[in-house]
Every structure is written in C-alpha cells, then in structure tokens.
Amino acid sequence: AVVSTQSTGNMAGSPGKRFIFVASDRDFFDATGQCRDRGGSLPCVSNILQQEQVLQLVSGESAWLSAIDYYEENTWECESGERFTFSNWAPSQPDNMCGSDTDADFTYISRSDGTWDDCGSNVFWLYKRDVICAVDCTVGDEEGCVVSGDVTRDEETGDIVVQSASSYNSGYQQGHYFIYNETPTDFFSASRDCFDKGGWLAVPMNQEEQEHLQGMITSDAFVGVADYYEEGDFFANTGNTLVYTNWAQGQPLNSYMDEDDADFVVMSYKPGEVDHGQWFTRGST
DSSP character for 142? Predict the structure, then answer.
C-alpha cells in the first residue's frame, strides 16, 4: 500500500524511500549498477509498508533486494550500507541453497506471496530478476515516499505511527562522524566492521571532509569507493552518488604490484608530501 500524507500526517518530514521499477531479467550485479546510476540502491526494506510497496512493483516472478550475507555466512546486511532491521523470509529460509548453488549470498522477493529467499553468489550470479530501485525522499515532499524505520498501526484509528525513522544514506547535509581504526585489514573486513558500527567506510563528500580524514590517518587507509562491479565505474559504498574524488596524478589505474585488477581505493599516508591524502587503487576481489 502506498502511504499518503493525508492518512499519515504524523509522518510528514520523516525520511523515507521512493521505489521505482527499472528493468526485468537482470543479474544482481547489473541490478545494483542500474540503481546506482539512478542515485539509489536496491531496496533495503525497513518495514511492512515498504515491503508492500516493493511487492506491488514486481512484474515478473521476483525482484532483487539489497540484503546480502556476502561478508559472513548468515549475517545479513544491506548492500546499500543501511541497517538490516526487517525481513520476511519464507519458511525454512534463508538456507544458503539455490538450485546447484550452495553459497546463496543474495536475496529476492517473490511476487506470488511476498516472501524472501536467498539465491545467487559471487560464483553463481547469472540468476535474472526484476530491478526495483529505492531512492531517498522526505515524506510529505514527494508523492509515493514511504517512511523508513519502525512503524506500527494504531488499533483504534488505523493510523500508521512512526516509532523510529532513520536514513542512513542521507548525505553530507546531516553531517558525518568519523572513527579511525588503525588495525590493518582487508577491504571487505573493513566494510563489515563499519556496518557493525552502524556506518560505512568513509567517502569524503567535499574537500573539507577530505582534509579532516587525511589529518586522522596514520597509515594508508581504505576509502569506501570501488569498481568491482564494472571496471572503471567507481561507486560509493554508501549508496550515494560519488560527488567528490581526490585521485593522485595518473590514477585510477587497474593494476597494483602483480595484480591486474585493482578494484579498491586507499587514501595515501605521506605526511609532508604532495601525495598525502591522495587516492590510489589497490587490491581486487
């Protein structure tokens, strides 16, 4: 059901999501790219209202959702970087199985009953489903904006009551709080650590944030930017549009040492040198 501001006036001004049907028959990685190109992400469904809205838009048998357990088996999170707070798994799901695939890392919603199942992985990824994208919005400002966060329905009036509404991809206008971890690790472990803390790998939105971050680091540090979906198409792991970069001269390159597929980005630690804080490609999937 589409929530209208007329019946849920108490939600006006709350952060929400507007859902858009984009395409059919796309694999998971293509689907995430389609949504990034539109300034959004696959749906990280946060409540029953968003669940119902997404289901209405499914035109084929199923559609991809943002939920993944790619980083750690059976620890579900949203590829978009938002908190995973709501689910609608089918009975006995998720079971880490999909046909011959015994490592099902991605999630889809079924058109028949709205339940969720896990299917597809980084190896068996050629499953095709509908693409529905979620774009940030503010309830009351845009038609079709469905509130994010925990909601309940008042038993007497039938009105929807917002318990807690949160937008984790809201951009720089709400400010960022940065935490620096000096422990060396890989890109995916760093991403997971940030998700566990309720955030994401830092992506500077402007020169001010860039200078703040380069003043914090004590060694090369990962930036939440990568191109592992499509070579040369760098994206921010926050789900926001990549609006600022600080590439070093000659970067980005698709090679590093003996690797010929450098997918991730680090901020260089070279205090007193021109390269300090500049971005370089490193590592691969």
Answer: B
